[in-house]
Each structure stands twice: as C-alpha cells, then as structure tokens.
C-alpha cells in the first residue's frame, strides 16, 4: 500500500486562525473554551504551527470560516477557481455596507473593461478604414 507521507506545515493555518480570532476580538482563552481545549493549545497552533487533531482542525476552520484549500493544495493544484473561492470567503465576512461598495467596484471594473474593448474596436475599424483608403489612393 502506498501511503502519502507528506508533512503539512501548519504555520499558515496558525496565522490564519490568529488573524480571524483577532478580527473578532476574541482571546485565545475564549477560543479554547469554545473548542474544549486549553489556551496554551490555541497559542501553540497560532504561534508555533502545532498540528491540531483532525477534530480540532475541523472545529477551528468551521468556527472562523477559513478555506482549507490553501493548506492542502499548491497554487497550481487549486486551479483558477481558488481566487474566486477566496473572494467568496472575504465577501461572506462583510456587512451590507461593505457589500454595496464591493458591488459598485465590480460594476465599475466591468464598465471600464467594456469601454476599453469598445475603444480598441473603434481603433481597429478606423485603422482598417485609413489603410483601405491609402491602398486605393483615396487619401491625399
């Protein structure tokens, strides 16, 4: 039987947990109480990259709504949808006012892209027009 013997580096998970915990204004002791562990365990996961049990890993990523793809897959393995997944996670944590700003930003980007495409199209059409005119000697 072929066993996968990769060792995962949990420092990234620790940093993500710490950031999420601090954003909520929670202490390590409070998180420890929520998941049934000691604050020392939470501190070691956050600061030393200590590997949690699967059950604790699941509780923590669920508690803080952290996407685990980044910890198991390399950039190439995650594919192009990883950016969309990350944006989804970020959007899920936003309030209604922040979502309105994000919606307006996305609409602005879409409009800018459409304008850019129209400008390129007009440039190409006018270039072809002038090229045809010069080819047939219609320009002076």
TrEMBL record:
SUPFAM superfamilies: lambda repressor-like DNA-binding domains. It comes from the Bacteria. The keyword DNA-binding applies. GO terms for molecular function: DNA binding. Residues 17-71 form the HTH cro/C1-type domain. Keywords: DNA-binding. InterPro entries: Cro/C1-type_HTH, DBD_HTH, Lambda_DNA-bd_dom_sf. The keyword DNA-binding applies. This is DNA-binding transcriptional repressor PuuR. It comes from Blautia wexlerae.
């Amino acid at each position: 039987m072929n066993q996968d013997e990769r060792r995962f580096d949990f420092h990234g998970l620790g940093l993500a947990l710490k950031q999420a915990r601090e954003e909520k204004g929670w202490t390590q002791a409070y998180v420890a109480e929520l998941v049934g562990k000691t604050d020392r365990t939470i501190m070691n996961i956050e600061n030393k990259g200590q590997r949690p049990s699967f059950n604790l890993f699941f509780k923590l990523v669920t508690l803080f709504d952290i996407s685990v793809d980044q910890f198991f897959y390399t950039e190439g393995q995650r594919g192009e949808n990883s950016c969309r997944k990350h944006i989804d996670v970020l959007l899920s944590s936003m309030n209604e006012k922040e979502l309105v700003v994000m919606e307006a930003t996305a609409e602005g980007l879409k409009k800018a892209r459409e304008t850019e495409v129209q400008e390129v199209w007009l440039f190409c059409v006018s270039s072809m027009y002038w090229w045809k005119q010069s080819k047939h000697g219609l320009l002076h």
